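Predict the 3D structure for this chain.
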Amino acid sequence: MRILEYDQVDPLGVLQISLLSLDFAHTPQRAAQIRQTDPRPFPFFALYAVEKEQVLGQVGVFRLPMISTQGREDVGGVWAVSTHPRYTGNGIATMLLDEAHHRMRQAGLRFSTLGTNRYRSAYKLYQKHGYEDMQVLGSALARWETAHRPTRMVAHSAGPEGYHLAEKIFNDYSPDYLGFSWRHTPFAPMRDKVSPEDIWLLCANKRPVGYALAHLHKEILHISNVLLDRDIDIVEAVAAVVAEVKSTYVKVNVTRPVEIARLQRAGFRVAHPDYNAFMLKSLVSNLTPTDARQLYGIGSDDFLVSWLDLT
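Done. Predicted structure below.
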């Protein structure tokens, strides 16, 4: 069995394993688009376990920019970990992860991160490889009548200029935070995963004070990626969006303790952590996930993270 890079393997084999394991159309065109628009992948893009021209497993590798108490630092990001169903249980994912971690160390990275779900079988695999669940991702749920309340804020859909306006607001307020508070510009994942009509600008006294992503699906208004001026109450920000979109229920993704506490006091039912997991592993012997918590403020009100930033 050999470990090869993306450009060395059969694209049809890559597509097959991606569809089988992730239901992800990992076509050559899609890979080319990512490489052209997103500076985060390593030059080799992804690693593959191959035997007799058959792709048995894959793992993608990113460099993710973060801000610590010591300044900007790239960390590793693992994505698209997959094994062909015929070859599960043969240590293929372990072999690929070990190689990915080795290459991250060679690149001078001190930590590796990933996003997953705690109910997936891969969650235990990542734990065996030294990844620790940082337990920072949560969600808050309420009826629309609970979330709807008087607010001094105004929310409006950003429209065609949404990407540009959201990036400007991010650059204005993210320096107040640690963690994923620095992004490459333009931020390709937002353009790929978010429609402009889902970007909502939040204003107070006619001044932009933040933004949120929001969309209505099956009577549930989903609000995520809320980024606010530190002085703004998330309950008011949510109420501003809720005032513009009538739904039966409102679900808000949350990570910061202050936001969780405020939403709970406002009558939301909070699950923290929920089944979404942000996991981190130390790649060097002199640092631990506990050290990472202190460096990046993980679990505190200073830590900024969203599903857009995770692999």
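The radius of gyration is 20 Å.
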